[in-house]
Amino acid sequence: MLFNIESDEGGEITGYVVPDDFEKTPILHVLVDGQVAARIRCSEPRPALVTAGRHLNGLCGFLLNDANVPGLGAMRYVEVVDEESGILIYRRNLDAPGLPNRLFRLETHLFPLWGLDAALKQHFNYFHRGIERLGSETATQIFHLLNTTSLYVSGRLTLRQYDALIHERFTWVTLLHDPYYELAERLMALKLVPKYGDALLGQRDLSAFKPAIDFVADLETDEEGLVKAFAEMPGPVISILSNPLARQLAAEGFDALLPRGAVATALANLASAGVVGIRERPHVFAEDLEQIMRMPQGAVQIAPLLPPVQALAERLRRLPETEVLLEADLDIYGQVKAAVAGGG
Fold it and tell me: Residue 194 burial by CB count (10 A; 0-12/13-18/19+): exposed, middle or buried?
């Protein structure tokens, strides 16, 4: 899906929404105080969409005004949401316009830090989390949103696919797990997928992680069970679980082979971030982020590590196979940890 706001002149808001369905006409909900104040069918023609083969009739534009949204010109808080997907198209918030910054948080955890997103959300006018679930086209469109200066976005994306957009328009930050802890959390999360489904993973990830989901279904996480399972781990599962951080920072995609010099590339990319933190020292990440974004002290809240996951991580740390599986990630994390410790 593509979308954008072209203008907000108070009494008129114009923009467009291009649905994934070639023939469908988008419908928008205009929300006031969380309630649907108007239901608007896009009816403004955008002939270029027909010419480009993106839509059957080009009726994807919209014009909101006092005629179809009574009192729009006087409203200080308005949200525009796509009816089918629930994606936020636009938010006007004149009483609390948000920090005048565009911030992207690269999510490196399979089990996302949505608590951190929730803590940061209130400081920005425009907010999208977990954009990897929306697909590549919509994620790209979010980075192209130009008519907002207060925007917070998070997503578990491969950096190389979006690096030009991120570096050109955003301050970006990331918080890294100890690779053993991240693997432990992934194993535990994947084990819960049959019960909780897409509450844990989006549809694309459910498909991509299927071999690993099947692998952990009967996984015993005691010492003996781990030794047996890792000794017999199938190739497709190795490909899914090996060096996810290095792939995210240096490879073309999560399923791609690591390029030569992946660790050096990953570290060079991290050097361009506004803040890089580690979960072992959350206060350092929080303080640095609050400082560069000029947020109030205590704005950044990070959930503590979970003891059951920590216990599994320690058992994984004792397996020689795990060290091989995470070799590049351990190198990256070790160097970042040393830098964070050296900086205080």
Answer: exposed
Taking the C-alpha atoms of residue 191 and residue 113, their distance in angstroms, rounded to an integer, is: 19
CA distances from 33 to 36, 47, 91 (A): 8, 34, 12
Strands 102-106 and 171-176, by their bridges, are parallel
| Residues 115, 275: Cα–Cα separation, whole Å | 18
Q: Which candidate, 190, 242, 230, places its Cα nearest to that of 315?
A: 230
**What is the β-pairing status of strands 59-65 and 12-18?**
antiparallel
3-state DSSP call for residue 45?
strand
Buried b (16+ CB within 10 A) or exposed e, 266-277: bbebbeebbbbb
**Nearest residue to 335 via CA among 244, 263, 260, 250:** 263
How far, CA to CA in Å, does 87 sit from each of 17, 152, 320, 341? 11, 14, 44, 39
Q: Can you read off the two tokens belonging to residue 232? A: 């017999």
* Side-chain-side CA neighbours of residue 219 (13 Å): 26
The CA distance from 112 to 50, in Å, is: 38
Residues 6+ apart with CB under 8 A from 22: 54, 55, 56
Is residue 344 pLDDT above 70, yes or no? no
Query: What's the full length of the chain, in residues?
Result: 344
pTM of the model: 0.90
Taking each helix axis from N to C end, the angle separating 179-196 and 307-317, rounded to the nearest 10 degrees, works out to 120
- The least confident of 55-69, 186-200, 250-264, 312-326 is 186-200
What are the Cα distances from residue 9, in Å, to 6, 63, 171? Answer: 10, 11, 28
Instruction: Render pLDDT for 215-247 as a digit per residue (tens, 0 to 9).
Output: 999 999 999 999 999 999 999 999 999 999 999
* Nearest partner of 335 among 290, 276, 284, judged by Cα: 276
Q: Is the pLDDT of residue 199 over 80?
A: no
pLDDT at residue 196, rounded to an integer: 84
**Domains (ranges, CATH) in the chain?**
1-94 (2.60.40), 96-344 (3.40.50.300)
